Amino acid sequence: MRKYLFILIAISLVLLLAACGDGEESEASSSGNWPDELVIGVVPSEDQTSVSPRVEQFAEELSEELDVDIEVFMGTNYNAVIEGLRNEHVDIAFFGPFAYILANERSGAEVFAIGAKSEDEISYQSAFIVPADSEVQELADLEGKDFLFVDPASTSGHIFPRSAVIDEMGITNEEVDDFFGNVSFSGSHDASILSVINGDVDGAAIATDVMDAMIAQGQIDENDFKIIHSSDDIPRGPDAYRSDLPDDLKEAIREFYYSYEDEQYFEERGINGFYPIEDEAYDVVRRTAENLGMSPEELLN
Q1: Edge-to-edge order in the sheet of strand 126-131
Q2: 196, 203, 134: which is closest to 164 by C-alpha?
Q3: Distance of CA 221 to the CA centre of its chain
Q4: Average pLDDT rounded to a whole number, residues 69-83
Q5: Which element (helix H / strand E) includes 90?
Q6: So what's the pLDDT on residue 1?
Q7: Who's near 214: CB < 8 A, 6+ residues apart?
Q8: Minimum mean pLDDT range among 119-133, 250-264, 283-297
Q9: Helix, strand or coil for residue 109?
Q10: What mean pLDDT value characterizes the chain?
Q11: Which pLDDT score, from 0 to 100, does residue 157 have?
């Protein structure tokens, strides 16, 4: 009897060890397909030549949380980051709303978070600004003037304001550039705002959230310029990752973003935290782009 008892105990131990082994193998396999390194893509603002310390700190903290090396890639513009995502050289990125639409179509970008003041304040506007002492009072007064857009793929710095000129002036998309005396792209909202304040151009289209952040940080004064036209609400730019990343890795990234707290980093981005967002929120951006009758390639060139 005792012999059979020992046999039963031995069998139980073998089964228990086997179960533990399977659990360890399962746990390893859930994260075993994580990449050794992740790359965060960013687009420079103002005259940046290197990644800001707060972005580097964010990357370091994400690296510690995931136990994966994190590198930061600074693209020259939105298109560079979109292409980096498509070529799997970039894994996570912050996009403007329209740039996200392109990244979603071209590179399989999957939106997961939106930085905002609160969950109820996830939108902003596109605004036309002119120097404070300018005689320009409305869009029609900008005819023949030197004007700055931000980037061909910028939602609030190009797509929405371009659509506004078409609607307000009753012209075609092909006639927009001829409406102004000269049209250029500054490369960033910060640069456009400062160009207007310094009197280098007659007007510019910019994002109100960037404007508000610069005012809050004391970089500019609201009396240095005036707003002559504003758009309807636009969902703020989201953070997105490659859709083909492992599901458990994407979940870990989301959890890090949603629980992240760093006032200096938030101040730099003009937000108070990260909140969940779905792709459908950007349908208004898609419709505006469609109204222009331009392909993504045309909007980028």
Answers
A1: 182-185, 146-149, 203-207, 126-131, 225-230
A2: 203
A3: 25
A4: 91
A5: none
A6: 47
A7: 190, 193, 220
A8: 283-297
A9: strand
A10: 86
A11: 94
Helix (H, G, I), strand (E, B) or coil at 53: helix
Cα angle value 119/81/240 (rounded, 5°): 30
String of DSSP letters for 4-49: HHHHHHHHHHHHHHHHHHHHHHHHHHHHHTS-SEEEEEE---TT--
Helix (H, G, I), strand (E, B) or coil at 153: coil
User: Tokens 């969940």 correspond to what residue?
Assistant: 276
Distance spanning both ends of the chain, measured CA to CA: 85
Token pair for 128: 């036309």
pLDDT tens for 223-269 read: 999 999 999 888 988 999 999 999 999 999 999 999 999 998 998 88
Which carries the bigger pLDDT value, residue 26 or residue 74? Answer: 74
| Amino acid at residue number 13 | L
Q: Give the number of other Cβ atoms within 10 Å of residue 280's Cβ.
A: 10
Measured distance CA(259)–CA(255) in Å, rounded: 6
C-alpha span between 265 and 130 (Å, rounded): 29
Domains of the chain, start order: 34-121+236-300 (3.40.190.10), 123-234 (3.40.190.10)
**Residues facing residue 182 across a β-bridge:** 146
pLDDT digits (tens, 9 = 90+) for 171-193: 998 899 999 999 999 999 999 99
In this model, does residue 108 exceed pLDDT 90?
A: yes
227 token code pair: 């707003």
Whole-model pTM? Answer: 0.69
Residues near 26 by Cβ (< 8 Å), separated by ≥ 6?
none
Looking only at the bridges linking them, the beta strands covering 69-74 and 37-42 are parallel
